[in-house]
Amino acid sequence: MAAWSAYQTTSTPFGSWKSIWSGFLAAVASCISVLFLWILTLRPSPQHGVISVLRHLYFAGKSYTRGKYYLRKLKTAWKNPRYAQDQFLMRVLKENGDTDYGRKFKLKNIVSAEEFRKRHSLTTYEDYKPYVERVMAGEQCVMTQVMPNAFVQTSGTTGPSKYFPQRDQRYLLTRMMDVLYTNLHELCPRLGLLQKKLFHYVQPVMSRAKNGGSIRSAFALYEDGFMASCYTTPPSGFRIHSYDDANYIHLVFTLLDPNTGALCGSFLGGIYTMMKQLEQCWEDIVYDIEHGTITEKVKFDDADIRSSLEQALGGGHPERAGELRRQFEKGFNGIMKRVWPNLEVLSAVDNAGSWPDLKAKYAEGIPFVNLGYGNSEAMILGVSPWFHEDNHSMVFCTNMAFFEFIRHEDSNESQPKTLLIDELEIGQEYEIVFTQESGLYRYRLGDVIRITGNHFNCPTFEFMYRMGLIMNLRYEKMNQVVLKAGLQSAVGQWNDMRLFEYAVAESTLVPKSSPAFEETEDMPYYVIFLELDQTVNKSGNKETSKTAELASNEITSSIDVELRGLNSIYERLRRSGAISHPRVHILKPGTFEDLKQHVVNTTNTTANQYKVPQRLRTVDTLNFMFDHAV
Ligand SMILES: *[C@@H]1O[C@H](CO)[C@@H](O)[C@H](O)[C@H]1NC(C)=O
Ligand SMILES: *[C@@H]1O[C@H](CO)[C@@H](O)[C@H](O)[C@H]1NC(C)=O
Ligand SMILES: *[C@@H]1O[C@H](CO)[C@@H](O)[C@H](O)[C@H]1NC(C)=O
Ligand SMILES: *[C@@H]1O[C@H](CO)[C@@H](O)[C@H](O)[C@H]1NC(C)=O
Ligand SMILES: *[C@@H]1O[C@H](CO)[C@@H](O)[C@H](O)[C@H]1NC(C)=O
User: Fold this and answer.
1) Which InterPro entries match (predicted)?
2) How far out from the chain centre does Cα 494 lie?
């Protein structure tokens, strides 16, 4: 009404134009102020400029909108998992039907999951190797209609590397990150869209196949321009190949931002290692934040990384540096909440079970969300829509792969009967088989999971172990879950001791040339290596030698007793003398950290994808362990 009367009283065209214009300006101004008020609710960092905040809003908003859409589709798939599975399978068979592989198996004519399981046998990598080689050489239409633009390379610690083609790496990565981040925002409503996240990442060395696709590890999860300005670390910080140096840079920039909202990464162990590194190098970090420099101790392959990082530090932040110094001088217990008061969540894959330690030491008061279940072959197969504290289970991504399940007791057969997603029993263990969209069909992953319940109508599961890590001297099939439980319980009987990490080899791996070799062909045994933590009394050298002395008798017999109690076949084989008692070696503190360096130095394994080799399978790692026993 006011605007209308203003129009009435201004008679000249120029005057009316002016009042419309000022009304328009007022409207724009109020929109902008509403926009800014809304932006404030998303918890931006005060020290970031308007342009940087708007860029962040653009990328984070896009990712969140897409993530919402994918999550909605996933929920629909959970409500009717069998239908979602059939849809996925039929789509993939049609899309990849017109390829050399598809024609050979007449994939296009298949009309049901039933027929698919009859016509196509279960497979392993060997079935695809010749096809993959042709794809990598640049031949068209071999496994997929579109030319794959990436090959995920396994580390090949125990044999030659395997390569898994991916039709569209960037799309898969984007979708995975969108789903995971949106899931975090739904779980933690207080996590502001404009709070920056740490993305813990070390850039693996990549190469190119003849067809132009990149050859990369499964954890090459960062792409240029990807989620730019949503992460604490500037883009050049994602180009660092050295693990320690990358950790240092992530620490500098994440500590610089007191408003950091989430710490994410592929493996939680990586974040744990980074925090331990902080205790060593915090003085350098505080100095660098204060002066806007990067210490010369950090080496870069590329000279321009240093200058762009120093530029991002913008001349130094003495106030923040002073605040950090005060916090570090108080010690590192519960440090995360003290330096990042708005930190809402940690998210990664906890493959080494580091969460309880990390939480107790640094992450008090912050919840953890399991990033999901994935691998080189399929990126992501399960997500966890809960806080880890509430529920350790994950739910199958029923619209991203077609799953089949082999009953645990049938795993030793080469073509056992499989079950579908709606035929599983809670509490049972199954080996996973899956079909994905880049050319693997009925592929046996060798992972064993246990069904724990239902989410909507879709089964939930926990990862149990890899079949490749089962210890099998005779036919006792000692899996890593049982083995670890036995070792923990044996070590726990020992005052103040805790199992930090372990690795086990079958005695058949010990080479004749080794001093540890024993002539016991018909009485094989486990060679067990333990790194222990003294929980109360910090170990000095005297303590360590005492530990070594005790090892040979006390701990050996308690481990033997525990394992016999947990695995009845092992018990029978031990009683009949078909297996000899284990040989236990206590390792020097820090051995597993050194082993990691050693493996990263000497194989194609990158620091990102490294996993502790719980079952030692190479003479090289075995000798490394013998060399580090006390
Ligand atoms: C390591 O990677 C290179 C290049 O991708 C490859 O040629 C070589 O065979 C790999 N080594 C092993 C042991 O897999
Ligand atoms: C698999 O193991 C079961 C016992 O667990 C045995 O009865 C069966 O013969 C084995 N099958 C093969 C192919 O080894
Ligand atoms: C985890 O959630 C699923 C689905 O809601 C449920 O069936 C299962 O019992 C839960 N597990 C625990 C340990 O709470
Ligand atoms: C720590 O070690 C000392 C001597 O080695 C011992 O007397 C003391 O009881 C130990 N502390 C605990 C809590 O076990
Ligand atoms: C790994 O290589 C780095 C240098 O590339 C070297 O400093 C380090 O000592 C090596 N570590 C092991 C355990 O071989």
Assistant:
1) GH3 (IPR004993), GH3_C (IPR055378), GH3_M (IPR055377)
2) 33
For residues 289 and 209, membership in a common domain is answered with yes
Containing structural domain, residue 531: 470-627
Domain's final residue, options 366, 394, 416: 366
217 by DSSP, 3-state: which? coil
Residue of the CA atom closest to atom 12 of ligand 5: 598
Q: In terms of C-beta density within 10 A (0-12 exposed, 13-18 middle, 19 or more buried), how is residue 365 classed?
A: exposed
pTM above 0.90, yes or no: no
Number of the ligand closest to the Cα of 461: 3
Which region among 2-6, 265-269, 315-319, 512-516 has the lowest average model confidence (pLDDT)? Answer: 2-6
Q: Check if 301 has its Cβ closer than 6 Å to any atom of ligand 2.
A: no
Sequence-distant (≥ 6) Cβ neighbours of residue 396 within 8 angstroms: 81, 381, 382, 403, 421, 458, 459, 461
Atom 8 of ligand 4 has which residue's CA nearest to it? 537
What is residue 36's predicted lDDT score, i.e. its pLDDT?
81
pLDDT at 585: 92
| Closest listed residue to residue 438, CA positions, set 379, 370, 397, 362 | 379
Give distance in angstroms: CA of 306 to centre of ligand 5. Answer: 23
Q: List, for residues 96-131, the tens digit of each pLDDT value.
A: 999 999 999 999 999 999 999 999 999 999 999 999
CB-based contact 403:421 (threshold 8 Å)? yes
Extract the runs of DSSP E, i.e. beta strands, from 44-162. Answer: 150-153
- Same domain assignment for residues 307 and 194: yes
Number of independent structural domains in the chain: 3
| Residue in 245, 600, 601 to alter for ligand 5 test, most ligand atoms within 8 A of Cβ | 601
601 Cβ below 6 A of ligand 5: yes
On whether both 566 and 424 belong to a single domain, the answer is: no
Among all chains, which residue has been given the structure tokens 């064993």?
A: 448
